[in-house]
Please model this.
Amino acid sequence: MYAVCPKCQNSQAINAQQLKKKRGKVTCSQCKHPFNPRTSLSDRPLKVVNENEIQPYAWQKPVNSHSKLWLICSLLATLLLIYQVYYFKGYSLAQSTQIRPWLQSISTAINYPLPRYRNSSEFTIIGSSFSPLKNNNYRLQVSFINHANFSQALPNLNLTLQNLHGGIIAQRLFTPKEYLKKSINPPLIASNKDFDIDLLIAVPNKNIGGYQIALQ
Model:
């Protein structure tokens, strides 16, 4: 016969002689708990169910983890998608005032520069003059400010000269390298900062009735 421990459900064999000798007290061979075997005698050992052997319900079954190959393929596909978006839409996304701050954070983290921000409509001319000098030369002075939330490249300067009747005499586009008179890459103008241009210009021998300035 078998005595079953009430604490750990361990079954241990015991005969009538041992039962009489123990005087109603047996110590569990597994958990060392003393108990009265007469209250839990059994002809067969009690089978303890292992929790690992319990079959879960269908909705309780754990999902198998993805294989390494599947993860590698997914990662490569994601990187390929990101590269395609950057290749086809990178410049336009970098010019978006909503998306550029996020891209700047990523750019700083990976140490990769963004394309320069450029929006000529966010430049405002705050002053200009076109005054005659000797030898039929003129001095052009222009001041403008960058109202964008980001630093951006200096704009091109489009100068249009008009006669006394408002007709166009001459027109020329000056790039930053031309009005800065430097061969190096033009600097960026910071947000809410102003910039001054000072140029000497030779014009045709005609009466100048007016001028127009446009930043492009």
